Amino acid sequence: MPYYQYITNRRLVYLNDIGYFMITGVTENNDGIVKYKEVECQSLEVELSSRKLTGFVSGSGIYDENGDLVSLNPVPLTMTQFYSEILPYLAGWTFDIIPEV
Q1: How far apart are CA 22 and CA 13, in angstroms?
Q2: What pLDDT score was predicted for residue 85?
Q3: Can you tell me the distance from the alpha carbon of 72 to that of 70, in angstroms, rounded to the nearest whole number?
């Protein structure tokens, strides 16, 4: 049982021809002879639902054409810019529609 210890919450499981799942619950059991784990899994979409964005600031200020700092206020973003900033943290995910407001 070299991999038994790795069966833990939030670990990813791949099933051939089906896809990826995330372990969301693990129960260890013992029938008196063999120790085993029962797992509950959800489709990988659960990974995105478990992330929270609590604050976001892009850049370190506003600079003029000479490269001099003009303001330390956060830089306003369009939704497309926001998407490109957060996408590296959501590996394997895409967004179909990004409304511009």
Answers
A1: 6
A2: 75
A3: 7
